[in-house]
């Protein structure tokens, strides 16, 4: 897991934290344990009984940890004893993780959430009322990961022990809230089957990467423990079902047994073969559990959540549903709407001078970037503030732009269209211009056939362009085809690189599979930003911190100073230069920066850096392998997507001969 620095808790926060735990739980529990109409069968009853027993053990272990920490505050208790008590809690949590995190993900964050400060925006109207500044409150992180960083520091002093006591009390309270509620909340097959599949995703994308083991190690051991209840529940289904359900559950049992055995036999974190584990063991187990759920509880495909319940692989093209991430049009888009969006995307008519289009900065042949350090500004008046990120697979996020200021794809369009250094447009003028084209009016009527006659307006322009960007999904790279077993061809360097990416190099703890961006598994409902301490250039011998405030320029929170969205590394071989400021010209320079420990590792003052400042100590071959893996994520199927022609305008408008994609 990415280490988070400067986490300090004071004893007088204890009562506040406990009160927040109670309030949070009371608000969440009503929706977390909503009863299903389906009858709970023997499997659900057995699973619930085991869960209650395991939660009782977790509760006892958390109490023991608190008592041990309190003793250490009064007398000299060896750090090893504190660490041992912590391990017992962490192991006990892993046994219940699959259902606790499924039933109550918000409360689970208080138990084992990422050690990131939580920034609460109290005045959210700043997004619509531009004169109003956002008001924020920052809450320090808590839970097992924060405790782990404290207890496994190089030196655990008395102040750190006191901070750990506060954290342990909050942890104990959160665990008690979950444990006490389980006696009165029956489980259903739907909850169990979905939680099993989620846990497989969690172990595959987070567990074996060390995401939630930031300091104490034992990553593979924890993954093994976390998979055991998934195996146990699958065995229950194999014993109590028949026909196709029995066949699917039996296959799941077989794959999970092999997965657990492999984890037990290969417990070294750095040498663990993640590629083999995922492709040969975990992914087939996921497919079997998906088939089991569809057999027992058949459902129609729905875009009500990011993960497709019908997908049988993490690397299926339909594993994540692009339609979920839309705003107004949360559905599969009509071809007519996508086609209209494509035409608008490449048409300079949207800009004030009718010479610049969206495609000016997002060129298909460059994976929808422009290859510039910073994109050229309107009328060649210098450059814009940042680098143009790729639009391929950009849909898989709930935060857009480098500073995450837009929540939906659709919200990006007006920001670009009206911005003075980008398209410098005006919606009223754009609508008036488009109305002059008979071809455009017909385009809009076809795309919005079920809308009122005035379908050519600000909203429909935004929706059309967003629909086109939503369609820019490129998940058919050589790596994807290999993981889907469509081919056996993947070079050895890329294979080694994937294992490094998801292991020693820790890339996969921020660039999460399968999108390899910052959208967090297993539900893919939130997208992270990170503080890397990005430098102004690749001159690391004379490193200087880039002054761009990043997300803090939108929301003035100290925790977000220099924080930027984690982009996808898919198609990274085509999207140089890299970082928000284009500081690095090659992937080799990017790898060198991370290998050094980011800005803080280079000696810069970055107190809130979320990247570990310790060097990765990658060898020259390992660096080459990492780059080989990232290059294996290239999918150029969407390169030649420009329209053949643009809609015609009357010659007297001066818009008749505008070029596709604009003049610059």
UniProtKB/TrEMBL annotation:
Q: Name one GO cellular component term.
A: cell envelope
**Which residue ranges run through the membrane?**
12-33
**Domain of life the protein comes from:** Bacteria
Cited Pfam families: CCP_MauG (PF03150)
Q: What is its main location?
A: other
InterPro entries, per this entry? Cyt_c-like_dom, Cyt_c-like_dom_sf, Cytochrome_c_Peroxidase/MauG, Di-haem_cyt_c_peroxidsae, Imelysin_sf
Q: Which UniProt keywords apply?
A: Heme, Iron, Membrane, Metal-binding, Oxidoreductase, Peroxidase, Signal, Transmembrane, Transmembrane helix
Please report the stretch or stretches of sequence annotated as the Cytochrome c domain.
336-473, 492-634
Write out the annotated subcellular location. Answer: Cell envelope
A Gene Ontology MF term for this entry?
Answer: metal ion binding
- Per its record, how is this protein called by name? Cytochrome-c peroxidase
